[in-house]
Design goal:
Layout lengths: L2 H22 L15 H11 L1 H27 L3 H18 L1
Helix pairs in contact: 1-3, 2-3
Length: 100
């Protein structure tokens, strides 16, 4: 495997791991990006009917669903299967031992 491909796969593995950890946690992430654009009526009606906490929960829930789907696609694109992921992890271990 070429070094450039290795670095790309390694970066994507770190992203996958970070997303997985984020999705498993129940706490808010330390990073935030604003503004989040959502349909006006969704914003107005949920805010009016259920309040700001419900709106915040709903937006976060929608984000997590999208993040889950995106994460699955990234995994499929980069590794394709758990076996391929394990092979890459083994390659990382061999490379780390070689560098010592």
């Amino acid at each position: 495997m070429k070094e450039e491909e290795y670095k790309k796969k390694h970066a994507h593995l770190m992203i996958l791991k970070s997303v997985q950890d984020y999705l498993k946690s129940d706490t808010a992430s330390s990073g935030s990006v604003f503004p989040v654009k959502i349909p006006d009526e969704l914003f107005l009606q949920i805010l009016r009917l259920d309040g700001p906490e419900a709106l915040d929960y709903l937006v976060h829930h929608i984000f997590k669903i999208g993040l889950t789907l995106w994460n699955e696609r990234l995994f499929d694109k980069e590794f394709g299967s758990p076996a391929a992921l394990n092979e890459f992890i083994d390659l990382m271990k061999r490379k780390a031992n070689k560098d010592k």
